[in-house]
Amino acid sequence: MDKKDEKIELKDSERQPCEVWTRVMGYHRPVSSFNTGKKGEFYERKCFVESKCGLSK
After folding, report:
1. How many whole angstroms separate alpha carbon 19 and alpha carbon 32?
2. pLDDT tens readout for residues 26-45
3. Dihedral of the CA atoms 37, 38, 44, 46 (nearest 10)?
4. Percentage of the chain with pLDDT > 70?
5. Which residues are paired to 6 by β-bridges?
6. Are 39 and 31 in contact (CB under 8 A)?
7. How far apart are CA 41 and CA 25, in angstroms?
């Protein structure tokens, strides 16, 4: 097997959590610091692309 074809797998002990930040009220904050309600609002958000919405020409 070539080096290119090798699949890299990490053990759970080698992993580290990914911290997700978002912009709220003009500044950036980690989602982990949100209260339960704000976390719920964050996860309900939907992403969009302006060109698909017909706003860009």
Report:
1. 8
2. 889 999 999 999 999 999 98
3. 160
4. 84
5. none
6. yes
7. 14
Structure tokens at 29: 């904050």
CA–CA separation, 30 and 42 (whole Å): 11
Question: DSSP per residue over the chain, as a string?
Answer: --TTTPPP---GGG--PPPPEEEETTEEEEGGGS-HHHHHHHHH-----HHHHT---
Read off the tokens for 25. 């009220």
Amino acid identity, position 10: L
Q: Are 15 and 9 in contact (CB under 8 A)?
A: no
